[in-house]
TrEMBL record:
Residues annotated as domain VOC: 1-122
Native source species: Erythrobacter dokdonensis DSW-74
This protein's name: Glyoxalase/bleomycin resistance protein/dioxygenase
Pfam family, one: Glyoxalase
GO MF term (any one): dioxygenase activity
Length: 128
């Protein structure tokens, strides 16, 4: 079971503004806030997300093939999270819409540091 996901950043204040905006869509705020690390979520709640300056002092880099998926309830929520991400410095990796015909609805984007995320929900496929 995933407890939280940590993403590296080279600009914690910029990452903080980005994730503060996304966290608001999930009704959570910062649950830990240190000089080099911030975590968003709710104690005892769903898995959280964190941004950190790498402990080893080396620059943060993006993991190839790594992605964080943020589950929401409706396609409208997917659009709202995507719009918030774009308004706060994200880059597009795939506009909101259905993916395949199995009820998976998602949008893909990269945070200002280049970490890949998506917002998704499951909807009942047509005819099901």
């Amino acid at each position: 079971m995933i407890g939280y996901v940590t993403l590296g950043t080279n600009d914690l204040p910029r990452a903080a503004a980005f994730y503060d905006a996304l966290a608001a869509h999930f009704g959570v705020g910062r649950m830990m806030d240190f000089e080099t690390f911030i975590a968003w979520g709710e104690w005892g709640g769903a898995p959280g997300i964190a941004a950190t300056v790498p402990f080893d002092g080396q620059p943060a880099t993006v993991g190839n093939g790594v992605m964080v998926a943020l589950e929401v309830k409706t396609p409208e929520d997917v659009h709202a999270v995507y719009a918030t991400a774009m308004a706060h410095g994200a880059t597009d990796e795939g506009a909101p819409g259905p993916r395949g015909d199995d009820g998976f609805y998602a949008a893909y984007f990269r945070d200002p540091d280049g970490n890949k995320l998506n917002a998704f929900c499951m909807v009942r496929p047509a005819g099901a």
